[in-house]
Amino acid sequence: MPVQVEDSEILKKFQDEKTRNEAFNLLLKKYQQKLYWHIRRMVIDHDDSDDIVQDTFVKIWKNLPGFRNDAQLYTWMYRIATNECITFLNKKKQKNNIPLDDVAYELADTLADSTYFNGDQAQLKLQQAILTLPEKQRLVFNMKYYDDMKYEEMSDVLGTSVGALKASFHLAVKKIESYLLSRD
Amino acid sequence: MNRDRGNREWLNEYMSLKQVNPNNPFTVPEGYFDSLDEQILSKIKLEEMRNSMPETGFAVPENYFEDLAGNIQSRITVEEALDKEAAGFTVPDGYFDNLEQQIKSRLFVEEALDAQPAGFDVPEGYFADLTNNILDKTTLQRAERRGIVRQMFSTAAFKYATAACLALAIGGTLYLNQAGNSPDATHKNSFLHKSLSAIPVGDIQNYLQSHLDVNDTKTLMDESKPVDADNLTHDLQNALDSTAQ
Q: Which of B19, A143, A39, B24 minimizes the C-alpha distance to A169?
């Protein structure tokens, strides 16, 4: 397993014109998979995720020179990826002229037909349960359940207070548990 | 990022969720992440090229856009001048559109005219005798016409006769008018003349011999003068005056 370079070291290299490309390569290797899975769990389809993750890193490259150290690089990149996901889902809703909630049904169909899903029945059911949640709760649940992200970090990413995030998370978990219990 | 994967005590409250395998069920195509960083870098390069294209990809000379309007105007002026030169010899509108049709029509007419001698023929030697035939007919007819035609008003005697007739007619008319309006004619048409004419001549002579003197006879019987009403009145008055004395 390759040694993870600290974010501070990456940012330092990025400030230097000579080592900028090297710094960005390190950034890619460190975070590309994390951002991809974050995106994939939101949009489900691999090809859509591929497009979004590439667009996300293009934006990171463009905006990294203006990045300020008062925020964590990690949460800053997650915020960009999250915004790209929300923009994509909104476009999908407008393109198909359907309510945002109905996008979840479309994503569930995509999940059922997906070639790149290797989970068992319980995992499939969990994903279906997650897709029944509102968008914000989906984000909170995924970041907590799969990424073990702290509420403070989620607050940086989503721009929501920690208390509101805790409430959202508990609501989400209750809904999922209920879904899993009611539909066997 | 500080992860505490072990801190999942909250799952103990949700047994159904706890039983689900927490590992990522999604997969990606084989080798996807091996090439993802290269794809992202290529996309960034493309983005940079696309963004920088207007500045470096297609350059224009300095002050190009400042001079562009003037250059276009100059070009328009030159083009118009060239068009005018080319228009030194003009043709009517649509001339060349109809030219082919006109040429074809003209050729058709020419061919038709050329074909006419074969269509209308004359007897052999017709044109050789045509001049003599025309002369014979025209000179003969002219002579015949001279024997027949008369000019009604060409002789001088006719003119004089006409003038004499007119003079007689005018003169007669004037004479008759004068005779009708003369004192003698007036006297003959008067009541006195008509009344005296009915008296026999012998009675009149007897009357005059017994009742009138010599002066009266002179006045009334003077044949050299027509009876004048004024003179008659005057003479009668003289006679009365002398009788009264």
A: A143
